[in-house]
Design brief:
The chain is an all-beta fold and 175 residues long. 2% of the residues lie in helices and 40% in strands. The strands form 5 sheets. The chain has a 4-stranded antiparallel β-sheet, with no helix packed on it. The longest helix is centred in the first third of the chain and has 4 residues, at 13-16. The protein is globular. The protein starts with a strand and ends with a strand.
Length: 175
């Protein structure tokens, strides 16, 4: 299964601002809606991407897309204005979704975070930090022994990462 990303050309604050992480700049899903919507939206570009549930993120006139293509996770940078590819990075990652994630396929389920000229991704046991300008890899951490990478988050000027383990509940407490 492949997804398609569309860019609709409208001059609205909701589309004009940066959206550097999941659910927006403040991770609250809020964007300023226009006072009046245009009568018709116009598609500016369309690009086919791989499988996954990752949201596109936007910063500084670029769109970053994280998906799975065959047996590799793929991160690409596109021009917001015309959809042309700036760079693409792919790396093989073995991943077998389990439990409730299985019906959703093998694609990434976390959204990249863009901050201070870096794009961070991670969900299948590989946490990566790429340079936003050219995709080069300053560092990558591969987790083993049940410590999969979780959704990276932007906290001020810092990208944070929380390791996730299976949540065990007992008498309403989690640990």
């Amino acid at each position: 299964m492949r997804a398609v990303i569309l860019c609709i050309a409208i001059t609205l604050p909701v589309c004009a601002g940066d959206w550097p992480q999941w659910r927006g700049p403040a991770r609250d899903g809020q964007a300023q809606a226009p006072a009046q919507w245009p009568e018709k939206l116009t598609r500016k570009w369309r690009v086919e991407v791989g499988e996954g549930h990752s949201s596109p993120v936007v910063l500084g006139g670029r769109v970053y897309i994280f998906s799975r293509e065959n047996d590799s996770e793929t991160l690409r940078s596109l021009s917001l204005s015309d959809g042309k590819t700036n760079w693409t990075i792919s790396y093989p990652v073995a991943y077998t979704p389990m439990g409730v994630a299985a019906p959703h396929g093998k694609g990434p389920k976390s959204t990249p975070v863009v901050a201070d000229g870096r794009v961070c991704t991670g969900v299948t046991g590989v946490l990566s930090c790429h340079q936003a300008s050219d995709g080069k890899l300053p560092w990558r951490k591969v987790f083993t022994a049940g410590l999969p990478a979780a959704l990276p988050a932007l906290r001020g000027r810092h990208v944070t990462h929380r390791l996730q383990r299976e949540a065990h509940c007992s008498r309403g407490r989690r640990w």
